Amino acid sequence: RLSDRRAKSTVQYIISKGIAKNRITGQGMGETQPKVACTECTEEEHAQNRRSEFLIIKK
């Protein structure tokens, strides 16, 4: 799925910036968790749904 590839690419980018591989995970959500729920989406709404989100947890 495209969302899985996007998540993997984002994880690889973060790792390339020095974050240890064991400190980051990625998960593609696809159409299951859109930011903007719509049936007749505009291109702008589609663009908002193509995203990477980060949750930063303090150790």
UniProtKB/TrEMBL annotation:
Keyword Membrane tagged: yes
UniProt keyword annotations, A-Z: Membrane
Keyword match Cell membrane: no
GO CC terms, sorted: membrane
Ranges where the OmpA-like domain occurs: 1-59
Protein origin, superkingdom: Bacteria
Pfam families to which the protein is assigned, alphabetical: OmpA (PF00691)
CDD domains on file: OmpA_C-like
Record-linked SUPFAM superfamilies: OmpA-like (SSF103088)
Gene3D superfamilies, alphabetized: OmpA-like domain (3.30.1330.60)
The name this protein goes by in its record: OmpA family protein
Annotated source species: Flavobacterium urocaniciphilum
